[in-house]
Amino acid sequence: MLSLLSFTALMAGIASAAPAAKREMSPDGVYFPLPNGFPNPSQDALLQIQLDADGTLPNGPPPPSLSPEGATNLKLIALNELFEVAFFNELVYNVTNKVHGYDLGYGHEYVMDALKAITAQEELHALNANGALKHFNQQPIEPCKYAFPVTDFQSAMALAATFTDVVLGTLQDVNEEFAKNGDFGLVRAVSSVIGNEGEQEGFFRLVQKKRPSAQPFLTTSVRDFAFTAIQSFVIPGSCPNINTIPLRTFKGLTLLSANIKPATQNLKFSFVQADSNTNDYSTLSLVYINQQNTPVVKALQNVVVENGNVVFEAAFPYDEFVMDGLTIAAVTKGAGPFASADEVAAATEFGPGLIEFD
Ligand SMILES: *[C@@H]1O[C@H](CO)[C@@H](O)[C@H](O)[C@H]1NC(C)=O
């Protein structure tokens, strides 16, 4: 069970307790350019990335045209893959150097081999998206500065599993947007990336001693939720051209419940009172997106305002819908009903809260 925002809060606490933990690979959150020149590798460096990735960039011609929504898809993919490249390069660095919390002992070689391939594969995903943007005369997305709220291997794997689940849901939305806008020539390549990310997810789950496959139909997401979630790893103001991505950034929703067991129960959330457009909290709802099911709408209960935060509970109907894997929570204006995750995003004020079970 984790939420990116509560991760950040947790690590803020740990950082103040142990201010000495200095990041070695990425002083001040600067990861790029990598030693291999990425995001602008030379031709030789690209050949090495392809060897490390066990495969090449697609070498066929791109489709003849790209819709505006299709361009937004590629920009979001590039933004996401750049942050993943930063994360996995640092993870490889930490495990290679047996940084405190990353000394694996048994299994070191297999994990290193897997992580190096994943890192190179993510580099190719980013280069492919930015390459397509350049081909269509769009600005490629530039990397930001990042800070990751993890200092040990198990938390790094839990975080990777969560953001990869968000990607696995969001690429469903990306493919639907491509299809709706006539960009069918990009659906096959993105679908091949969904499979790759799913294989990675199985590995992240395995090293956490979870079953490799989480759900029969993976939880869907919407581009705006991924766009917001990625920014929780970004040092604010450090993305040179994130403003060229026409997606929404939601205000934060914090999941206050901790160590949640997969069971029907009330969950506790909060948001910043000043971020709200209303004082009548009965006009808001808490909505859950899980699997390919119709979003579940619940009322805000026991609402109190504490130290500038609006704190509330909402029923979590685990048993009724068998809500394993990733659940995306959002506070919406109104109670729907919402026929789809898109309709939830269109009405969202606060989110996404990320809930993840075995
Ligand atoms: C690598 O280790 C440093 C030092 O503990 C930590 O700050 C950073 O978040 C770690 N990165 C990853 C991706 O695990």
Automatic annotation (TrEMBL):
It comes from Melanomma pulvis-pyrius CBS 109.77. Keywords: Signal. This is Late sexual development protein. The keyword Signal applies. It comes from the Eukaryota. Residues 1-17 form the signal peptide. Pfam families: Ferritin_2.
